[in-house]
Amino acid sequence: MPRPPPDRSSARWKSPPPGFTAVRTSSAGRLALELINALLPSELRGVRGLHLVHGGARLPDVPNGGAAVDAVRRVVERSALGPTTGSLAQEAERRGIPVMRLDDFSLLQLGHGKRQQRLRASITGRTSSIAVEIAGDKDLTKTLLADSGLPVPRGEVVRSVEDATGAAERLGYPVVTKPLDGNHGRGVSLDLRTPEAVRAGFDHAAERSRRVIVEQQFVGEDHRILVIGGEVRAVAQRVPAHVVGDGSASIAELIERENRDPRRGSGHERTMTRIEVDGQLRAILAQSGLTLESVPEDGCWVRLRYAANLSTGGTAIDRTDHIHPENAAIARRAALIIGLDVAGIDFIAPDIGRSVRETGGGIIEVNAAPGFRMHLEPFEGWARDIARPAIETLFPDGATGRIPILAITGTNGKSTTTRTVGHILRHCGYTVGMTSTSGIWINDDRIMEGDCSGPRSARMVLRDPTVEAAVLETARGGILREGLGFELCDVGAVLNVQADHLGLKEVETLEDLAAVKSVVVESVRREGCSVLNADDPLTLAMARHAGGRIAWFSMQDSLSDVVRQHVSAGGLAVVQEPASIGNEVVLYDNGRRLPLMGVAEIPATLGGLAAFNIQNALAAVAMCYAQGIPPPVIRGALQRFSSFEQSPGRLNVHDGHGFRVIMDYAHNPAGLRALCDLVTKLRPREGRVIGMVSTPGDRRDDDMRELGRIAGRVFDVVVLRERPDGRGRAPGEVMRLIAEGVAAVDFPPERLHQVPDEIEAVDLCLGMAHPGDLVVLTPTSVEAVWSRVLAFTPPLPSELPRQAAEVV
């Protein structure tokens, strides 16, 4: 049954198609707004709420829509992929191969991680650099081919006009002159029959190379034979730039008319290239006694270039079905001898349908990075699908170049679940690339520090050539800013949707927030799996638009109707079964009940007391099982996941100072509430609970006050601190708002402390602690705070300040 279309409310947060640039998107978006604004009735353009704005400024009317469209078209043409690269990108996308643009030109990455291949036009990551160098040296190319018995013209390399004319005399007229290391037909002169013509040809070639080739001219038509992976895939007869007279228009007018053909453009941006009027063109006309003002007779064919390259305005006629097998064999051998995986063989033959062994002719050049456009859209004849075999050589047997991508979002628990999944995959032998709010990791190596839960970080992991599986923490901010950083994922999970970041970037309600986070599961590929929290109404509703199969996870004492029906139908679910029947993590799949392990066996749950880490473990189990990791591997990995090194800042416990310290990144009301639920279970019988609390400055005032109310109800001592970045708040404002919440629950004011600096606040909490106390720290600088905890030296009983007891 086809998947329903994605919810419109979340479609605006999808990533743009590969190859799009910010410039293109911005220019087209601005034009769209300007055009809509121009359509509004004039009396409405000034009505508050109806005029359009862009970048904070009201948009003007569009006086000349055509010019605006042309301007956007020019932007698109400047940033668009050329015909060759574009055809390969389109074929890759058709095959389901991810495409990533690595620069503003034509460098592409196809596939992800360890399975990626790179290309620029028709140069691929498998193209030998030595082969490219050989092909660039026309004399060496000709020598290697001649030594292998292939037909090539005789020639000499010269450095002076005198040497050029001497070589021509020895070889016999007509001759060709060309740069030793030229390309695209630049600097080539054909049909030179006199010493004067050779001198002019030498000067023309010497403008591009210090060394010039003078060689025998083969007689016949110019052909380009495209060899990919050792096989001839297309043949085109190339016709030099020319015009055909009509008896009334001048040559200049005929050229202008030809350049108006929409198939012609600048450089390689279109199927054909515009004909440029320059000194060489005028010289060629002069040899025939013509000028740009001459009016050719009706039907008169006027040559404008010697070389038949498309880049100088030539056209192409498809001859793929006409090539003689022996000519094809010669071309194949030439590509193999030079060592090119993709080669353009320039082949002169009087009749491509007859062997050059009997007609004369042969190979005049072998080209690395041959253009595809003459084969994709020839001026005459059949278009050839040459991108398909090119991609097949890079990704044989239907390979897609994909690595497993597991993406995780939610309000709370993202980092812990991401690290748990990464730990399990590593236990299975993968090289794991992981993004999180604490950095980017490739196995044990942190390659970037900071909040790396956005699309740029995801792309960094997917570009790494060592990564075999990507585990991506995917935060709301990055989705809103520029999408996901990937097109499709294999497993996507939404852990929960709770009040946080509301009031920012048009996300006003929990439903808005759910729409943003649902993008992750909407982007799960058809054969993948969406992991959803069956205990959260907002994630429950996401199943309607989620991709792939659905996997539920749940902590309810008894299975809900949704989960029960899902399991009965053979669906996948991971649940915590209650203590009455073992307090186990249990998998349900395909009608089978598969007990995995006791909840208390997972160290991160602190013996089953940390409910939020039980929930995170259930999500991680569902994700890894859906990815095909065997249950015994999952169980073994979970039993070894607990330390600070594996999950810094997420429920780290230290018991070395005579009192317990718990460090956890609980920065919003839901997160602190879950942490306080655990603290209540761990509350010491005799000691106190000392808690350090803060939150980012971009949260709502009411959220900050709620944080204070939660802390005031559970902690015996509350220490408030600031964050380094107030995110628009004045210094002290965050502490003041949280303090209002603390005071609202009748918390004794003498037990409330406000210490702006984080490390000083940590030192105060640790310094106040007595044996048997519980200290709860919610840090920003996780490593610095943990180092402070480890380095703390408890004072001797005689050294304890007398006022310490009085403070509380």
Automatic annotation (TrEMBL):
Q: Which Pfam families match?
A: ATP-grasp_5, Mur_ligase_C, Mur_ligase_M
Keyword line: ATP-binding, Ligase, Nucleotide-binding
Enzyme Commission numbers on file: 6.3.2.29, 6.3.2.30
Q: Which PROSITE patterns match?
A: ATP_GRASP, FOLYLPOLYGLU_SYNT_1
Ranges where the ATP-grasp domain occurs: 142-395
Per its UniProt entry, which superkingdom is the organism in?
Bacteria
* Comp. bias intervals (Basic and acidic residues): 1-10
**Listed InterPro entries:** ATP-grasp, ATP_grasp_subdomain_1, Cya_phycin_syn, Folylpolyglutamate_synth_CS, Mur-like_cat_sf, Mur_ligase_C, Mur_ligase_C_dom_sf, Mur_ligase_cen
Q: Which GO terms describe its molecular function?
A: cyanophycin synthetase activity (L-arginine-adding); cyanophycin synthetase activity (L-aspartate-adding)
UniProt entry tagged with the keyword Nucleotide-binding: yes
Question: Which reaction is catalysed here?
Answer: [L-4-(L-arginin-2-N-yl)aspartate](n)-L-aspartate + L-arginine + ATP = [L-4-(L-arginin-2-N-yl)aspartate](n+1) + ADP + phosphate + H(+); [L-4-(L-arginin-2-N-yl)aspartate](n) + L-aspartate + ATP = [L-4-(L-arginin-2-N-yl)aspartate](n)-L-aspartate + ADP + phosphate + H(+)
| Region feature Disordered, mapped onto this chain | 1-20
What is known about what this protein does? Catalyzes the ATP-dependent polymerization of arginine and aspartate to multi-L-arginyl-poly-L-aspartic acid (cyanophycin; a water-insoluble reserve polymer).
| Subunit and interaction comment | Homodimer.
Cross-referenced PANTHER family:
CYANOPHYCIN SYNTHETASE, MUR LIGASE FAMILY MEMBER
* Record family assignment: In the C-terminal section; belongs to the MurCDEF family.
NCBIfam families, per this entry?
Answer: cya_phycin_syn, PRK14016.1
What protein name does the entry list?
Cyanophycin synthetase
